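Final report, closing paragraph on structural work. Over the funding period we assembled a curated collection of sequence-structure pairs, and we close with a single example.
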Amino acid sequence: MPNRFNQYPENVSGIFYVDNQCIDCDLCKETAPDNFKRSDQGGFVFVYKQPETPEEESLCMESLMGCPVEAIGNNGDGVDRPLPVRPVSASSEDNEGNDDDRIDCPFCEKMHYPGSKTANSSEWTWDDSSACDHLLFLAIDISAYSGFQYRSRLFNQHLGLSDSKDEDVEIPSKDDPEEYLSVSEIIESITLPGLELRTYEDPGGFACGPVGGGTITFGFVPERANQ
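Its predicted structure, as stored:
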Protein backbone atom coordinates (compact mmCIF):
# COMPACT_ATOMS: atom_id res chain seq x y z
CA MET A 1 0.00 0.00 0.00
CA PRO A 2 1.48 3.41 -0.95
CA ASN A 3 2.48 5.77 1.83
CA ARG A 4 2.60 9.49 1.11
CA PHE A 5 5.06 9.96 3.98
CA ASN A 6 7.51 7.68 2.14
CA GLN A 7 7.20 9.38 -1.24
CA TYR A 8 10.26 10.54 -3.13
CA PRO A 9 11.04 14.27 -2.75
CA GLU A 10 11.32 14.47 -6.54
CA ASN A 11 7.53 14.13 -6.86
CA VAL A 12 5.88 17.38 -7.82
CA SER A 13 3.34 18.45 -5.21
CA GLY A 14 -0.20 17.24 -5.81
CA ILE A 15 -2.53 14.25 -5.67
CA PHE A 16 -0.39 11.55 -7.30
CA TYR A 17 3.02 10.43 -6.08
CA VAL A 18 5.44 7.49 -6.13
CA ASP A 19 6.85 6.16 -2.86
CA ASN A 20 10.03 4.26 -2.04
CA GLN A 21 8.58 0.84 -2.95
CA CYS A 22 9.12 1.61 -6.66
CA ILE A 23 11.00 -1.12 -8.56
CA ASP A 24 11.49 0.98 -11.72
CA CYS A 25 9.43 -1.38 -13.91
CA ASP A 26 8.42 1.19 -16.59
CA LEU A 27 4.66 0.51 -16.47
CA CYS A 28 3.64 3.98 -15.29
CA LYS A 29 6.07 5.71 -17.67
CA GLU A 30 4.62 3.78 -20.60
CA THR A 31 1.03 4.32 -19.47
CA ALA A 32 1.27 8.00 -18.56
CA PRO A 33 4.53 9.33 -20.05
CA ASP A 34 3.41 12.94 -19.64
CA ASN A 35 3.24 12.55 -15.87
CA PHE A 36 5.84 9.97 -14.79
CA LYS A 37 9.58 10.21 -15.33
CA ARG A 38 12.57 8.11 -14.30
CA SER A 39 15.31 9.39 -12.04
CA ASP A 40 18.43 8.06 -13.76
CA GLN A 41 20.51 8.86 -10.71
CA GLY A 42 18.16 7.26 -8.18
CA GLY A 43 16.85 4.38 -10.30
CA PHE A 44 13.18 5.06 -9.54
CA VAL A 45 10.17 6.78 -11.09
CA PHE A 46 8.50 9.93 -9.80
CA VAL A 47 5.62 12.23 -10.76
CA TYR A 48 7.10 15.18 -12.57
CA LYS A 49 3.76 16.68 -13.65
CA GLN A 50 0.36 16.30 -12.03
CA PRO A 51 -2.50 15.50 -14.46
CA GLU A 52 -4.08 18.57 -16.02
CA THR A 53 -6.84 16.92 -18.05
CA PRO A 54 -9.36 14.13 -17.40
CA GLU A 55 -7.45 11.97 -19.86
CA GLU A 56 -4.17 12.42 -17.99
CA GLU A 57 -5.90 11.74 -14.66
CA SER A 58 -7.39 8.54 -16.08
CA LEU A 59 -3.96 7.36 -17.26
CA CYS A 60 -2.40 8.15 -13.88
CA MET A 61 -5.12 6.15 -12.17
CA GLU A 62 -4.53 3.29 -14.61
CA SER A 63 -0.84 3.40 -13.65
CA LEU A 64 -1.76 3.36 -9.97
CA MET A 65 -4.03 0.34 -10.35
CA GLY A 66 -1.47 -1.55 -12.44
CA CYS A 67 1.59 -0.95 -10.26
CA PRO A 68 2.78 -4.43 -9.17
CA VAL A 69 4.16 -3.20 -5.83
CA GLU A 70 1.53 -0.53 -5.09
CA ALA A 71 4.07 2.29 -5.06
CA ILE A 72 1.76 4.90 -6.60
CA GLY A 73 -0.68 6.81 -4.40
CA ASN A 74 -3.45 9.32 -5.01
CA ASN A 75 -3.62 10.96 -1.58
CA GLY A 76 -0.54 13.13 -1.88
CA ASP A 77 -2.61 16.12 -0.82
CA GLY A 78 -3.67 14.36 2.38
CA VAL A 79 -7.16 13.47 1.16
CA ASP A 80 -7.95 9.73 1.18
CA ARG A 81 -9.87 8.72 -1.93
CA PRO A 82 -11.58 5.40 -2.68
CA LEU A 83 -9.92 3.39 -5.43
CA PRO A 84 -11.95 1.78 -8.20
CA VAL A 85 -12.46 -1.92 -7.60
CA ARG A 86 -11.79 -4.30 -10.45
CA PRO A 87 -14.53 -6.83 -11.07
CA VAL A 88 -13.65 -10.28 -9.78
CA SER A 89 -14.62 -13.17 -12.01
CA ALA A 90 -16.98 -15.71 -10.46
CA SER A 91 -14.54 -18.57 -10.90
CA SER A 92 -11.40 -19.42 -12.79
CA GLU A 93 -13.47 -22.18 -14.43
CA ASP A 94 -14.65 -19.48 -16.83
CA ASN A 95 -11.12 -19.10 -18.19
CA GLU A 96 -9.09 -22.19 -17.43
CA GLY A 97 -11.55 -24.94 -16.60
CA ASN A 98 -10.45 -25.35 -12.97
CA ASP A 99 -10.90 -23.82 -9.54
CA ASP A 100 -7.23 -23.42 -8.65
CA ASP A 101 -7.66 -19.67 -8.16
CA ARG A 102 -10.21 -19.84 -5.36
CA ILE A 103 -10.05 -20.77 -1.70
CA ASP A 104 -13.13 -22.07 0.13
CA CYS A 105 -13.54 -21.61 3.88
CA PRO A 106 -13.44 -25.08 5.50
CA PHE A 107 -16.06 -24.01 8.06
CA CYS A 108 -18.71 -22.15 6.04
CA GLU A 109 -17.53 -22.93 2.47
CA LYS A 110 -17.64 -19.27 1.43
CA MET A 111 -15.50 -18.68 -1.64
CA HIS A 112 -12.44 -16.40 -1.39
CA TYR A 113 -10.18 -15.23 -4.19
CA PRO A 114 -6.55 -14.24 -3.66
CA GLY A 115 -5.72 -10.57 -4.07
CA SER A 116 -2.06 -10.97 -4.95
CA LYS A 117 -1.91 -7.99 -7.33
CA THR A 118 1.00 -9.56 -9.20
CA ALA A 119 0.69 -11.00 -12.68
CA ASN A 120 -3.02 -11.60 -12.05
CA SER A 121 -3.70 -7.99 -11.04
CA SER A 122 -6.29 -7.56 -13.79
CA GLU A 123 -8.32 -10.46 -12.37
CA TRP A 124 -7.98 -10.40 -8.59
CA THR A 125 -8.64 -7.55 -6.19
CA TRP A 126 -8.92 -8.26 -2.48
CA ASP A 127 -11.76 -6.57 -0.61
CA ASP A 128 -12.00 -6.87 3.20
CA SER A 129 -15.80 -7.00 2.96
CA SER A 130 -15.53 -10.33 1.13
CA ALA A 131 -13.99 -12.06 4.16
CA CYS A 132 -16.15 -14.63 5.92
CA ASP A 133 -16.47 -14.69 9.72
CA HIS A 134 -13.84 -17.41 9.98
CA LEU A 135 -11.03 -15.78 7.99
CA LEU A 136 -8.13 -15.11 10.36
CA PHE A 137 -5.63 -13.69 7.87
CA LEU A 138 -4.53 -13.48 4.25
CA ALA A 139 -0.76 -13.56 3.83
CA ILE A 140 1.22 -12.87 0.66
CA ASP A 141 4.79 -14.11 0.25
CA ILE A 142 5.94 -13.42 -3.30
CA SER A 143 9.03 -11.95 -4.89
CA ALA A 144 7.57 -8.45 -5.18
CA TYR A 145 5.95 -8.28 -1.73
CA SER A 146 5.72 -10.13 1.56
CA GLY A 147 3.14 -9.21 4.19
CA PHE A 148 -0.42 -9.59 5.43
CA GLN A 149 -3.08 -8.21 3.11
CA TYR A 150 -5.84 -8.97 5.63
CA ARG A 151 -5.69 -9.26 9.43
CA SER A 152 -8.78 -10.01 11.52
CA ARG A 153 -9.28 -8.71 15.03
CA LEU A 154 -8.66 -12.17 16.48
CA PHE A 155 -5.37 -12.38 14.58
CA ASN A 156 -4.26 -9.02 15.99
CA GLN A 157 -5.32 -9.92 19.53
CA HIS A 158 -3.59 -13.29 19.39
CA LEU A 159 -0.29 -11.77 18.34
CA GLY A 160 -0.61 -8.58 20.41
CA LEU A 161 -0.88 -6.30 17.39
CA SER A 162 -2.85 -3.12 16.88
CA ASP A 163 -6.03 -3.10 14.80
CA SER A 164 -4.43 -0.97 12.08
CA LYS A 165 -4.74 -2.09 8.48
CA ASP A 166 -1.02 -1.83 7.80
CA GLU A 167 0.05 -4.85 5.79
CA ASP A 168 3.54 -5.01 7.29
CA VAL A 169 3.69 -6.88 10.60
CA GLU A 170 6.87 -6.52 12.65
CA ILE A 171 7.32 -9.08 15.42
CA PRO A 172 10.83 -9.32 16.91
CA SER A 173 12.49 -12.73 16.86
CA LYS A 174 13.11 -14.29 20.27
CA ASP A 175 16.54 -15.45 19.11
CA ASP A 176 17.56 -12.01 17.88
CA PRO A 177 15.35 -9.05 18.92
CA GLU A 178 16.91 -6.93 16.20
CA GLU A 179 15.52 -9.30 13.57
CA TYR A 180 11.84 -9.61 12.67
CA LEU A 181 9.92 -12.80 12.03
CA SER A 182 9.18 -13.59 8.40
CA VAL A 183 5.61 -14.10 7.19
CA SER A 184 6.01 -17.89 7.32
CA GLU A 185 7.47 -17.71 10.84
CA ILE A 186 4.56 -15.57 12.02
CA ILE A 187 2.10 -18.11 10.61
CA GLU A 188 3.98 -20.93 12.36
CA SER A 189 3.69 -19.03 15.67
CA ILE A 190 -0.13 -18.99 15.59
CA THR A 191 -1.51 -21.46 18.10
CA LEU A 192 -5.25 -20.83 17.90
CA PRO A 193 -7.32 -24.05 18.19
CA GLY A 194 -8.72 -25.40 14.95
CA LEU A 195 -6.53 -23.26 12.68
CA GLU A 196 -6.87 -24.41 9.06
CA LEU A 197 -4.47 -23.18 6.40
CA ARG A 198 -5.36 -23.00 2.72
CA THR A 199 -2.64 -22.14 0.22
CA TYR A 200 -2.75 -20.71 -3.28
CA GLU A 201 0.42 -20.82 -5.39
CA ASP A 202 0.77 -17.67 -7.45
CA PRO A 203 2.63 -18.65 -10.63
CA GLY A 204 4.01 -15.19 -11.27
CA GLY A 205 4.20 -14.01 -14.85
CA PHE A 206 4.57 -10.73 -16.67
CA ALA A 207 2.84 -7.62 -15.36
CA CYS A 208 5.01 -4.61 -16.23
CA GLY A 209 8.07 -6.80 -16.29
CA PRO A 210 8.81 -10.30 -14.99
CA VAL A 211 7.02 -10.90 -11.69
CA GLY A 212 8.14 -13.84 -9.59
CA GLY A 213 5.49 -16.01 -8.02
CA GLY A 214 5.14 -17.28 -4.49
CA THR A 215 2.69 -18.43 -1.87
CA ILE A 216 -0.59 -16.86 -0.77
CA THR A 217 -1.95 -18.33 2.47
CA PHE A 218 -5.42 -18.05 3.95
CA GLY A 219 -5.88 -18.93 7.63
CA PHE A 220 -9.32 -19.93 8.94
CA VAL A 221 -10.52 -20.65 12.49
CA PRO A 222 -13.83 -22.18 13.63
CA GLU A 223 -14.71 -19.20 15.89
CA ARG A 224 -15.64 -15.72 14.66
CA ALA A 225 -12.37 -14.04 13.74
CA ASN A 226 -13.41 -10.57 12.65
CA GLN A 227 -15.53 -9.39 15.58
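The chain is about 15% helix and 20% strand. The domain at 4-73 is CATH 3.30.70.20 (Alpha-Beta Plaits). We thank the funder for supporting this effort.
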